[in-house]
Amino acid sequence: xxxxxxxxxxxxxxxxxxxxxxxxxxxxxxxxxxxxxxxxxxxxxxxxxxxxxxxxxxxxxxxxxxxxxxxxxxxxxxxxxxxxxxxxxxxxxxxxxxxxxxxxxxxxxxxxxxxxxxxxxxxxxxxxxxxxxxxxxxxxxxxxxxxxxxxxxxxxxxxxxxxxxxxxxxxxxxxxxxxxxxxxxxxxxxxxxxxxxxxxxxxxxxxxxxxxxxxxxxxxxxxxxxxxxxxxxxxxxxxxxxxxxxxxxxxxxxxxxxxxxxxxxxxxxxxxxxxxxxxxxx
Length: 282
Hints:
Blueprint: E1 3-6, H1 11-22, E2 29-33, E3 45-48, H2 54-61, E4 66-69, H3 78-92, E5 96-102, H4 113-126, E6 129-135, H5 143-152, E7 155-157, H6 169-181, E8 188-192, H7 200-211, E9 217-219, H8 222-231, H9 236-244, H10 246-250, H11 260-265, H12 272-280
Parallel strand pairs: 1-2, 1-4, 2-3, 4-5, 5-6, 6-8, 7-9
Helix pairs in contact: 1-6, 2-3, 3-4, 7-12, 8-9
């Protein structure tokens, strides 16, 4: 059954394609992207599928059995974009949608969850078979902070002792590939996260160990964290959004200890030490 992947040239999409190719599924994968030319290096078929051009979606989804809907990166526009894809997929005869949602989407206080909840509801309402991959945070989300901590001598945040079950994108890509290539996942909702969580203080300790110098974690107010992000080049409005996530993170919004991710992939998630090492090597 042919698998279509939206956002196949994105950071997660490329990793999923690589995982599927490693499983020998290259001939059954179609990259669904805004600019097919940018997908040439993927080594698979590519079709134009532009959220903003609904006419491209009907042709793009023709003949697909399963659609991996990787959530759009355009926060605030996701719900409308996703609904357009869902409608086009149903019209084209797609049988199943696998969607990358957010950890504990149904209950999360992180504002990003609202669009994911709306998308999950739209997929259920479509009547198509579905699987929700509720991805936790990517450790890559902390790349700038980790590198900045080494340069500046301290790691800043406002999440207190909140536990964060983050792991690299590659682990989530492996889970997606497993769900796309094995049976038994219809109607399932998977909460995906690292086997072992960490606090910001523990992250700082690992950075210190690898950098060879003491880098403490400094917990500040949400307002001061937003100002700090803005002072390092993050647009002011987005800095406030990022800082706003710290409160629910401090309350456990990014914690999950079900080990569902490693159960799906059949191997442990990437240790924090390895994730930090990869970020510092960039």
